Amino acid sequence: MNxxxxxxATAVWLVDNTTLTFKQIADxxxxxxxxxxxxxxxxxxxxxxxxDPVANNQLDPVEIEKGEADPLYRLKLKFNPAAVGEEKRxxxxxxxxxxxxxxxxxxxxxxxxxxxxxxxxxxKLVGTTKPTIQSIRERTHWNISNIQPIDPVALGLxxxxxxxxxxxxxxxxxxxxxxLMTDDERRKLVSTEQSLGMDPEPRMPTAISGLETFTLSGxxxxxxxxxxxxxxxxxxxxxxxDEDDDEDExxx
Length: 252
Fold this sequence. Notes:
The protein has helices at 7-17, 22-29, 33-41, 61-69, 103-113, 119-126, 130-137, 152-155, 160-177, 183-188, 192-197, 220-223, 231-235, 240-251. Helices cover 47% and strands 0% of the residues.
């Protein structure tokens, strides 16, 4: 739900100038009902000057009248074309101070495992600058020898859905350019769920000499079963006639 600009100051004005319930003001301003009650008691927003939503084209006076007449009525924010898109984040992502030292590791991971991502995409994912990304790509960063690649999702610098959306965008760009991709590249350019659901492709090493003539299917000769040798031929047992001849010779 969209909130009015200067929501807390707007809530202060509505508490002071209307008979709307705390619930109605809280729903309209995107606040908790107890917080609005704290404004009325003077415990919250002390010293905050009220912001008139009617004079600033955020709320129609008719909405206030309807709300005062019906405690269950929900106030509707007045459509303001000038405010469209104001909630969209602009510029690089804000990174807390406690996580800023992890950004080089996240950048190195993205550069290593997703080289198809542009510097602009990496900058939006982890909240860094293009010169920093370029220095890590070219391995000219002052601390490059001590940086280990770590998944930015694991570091909490971005969400998995954001990373998947970025690689999906890179995949569409690759497809539009008509660039052929290997199996590894194809897996990198899909989301995590799609990658886990793919069937592994058979691979065969080609660096071994003579392997190019090797086939997995057997020949016709291999299909013929060799006759099973009998015991006599296996142990090379002498014939019974030969044994008799040997006895005669020894008897003589």
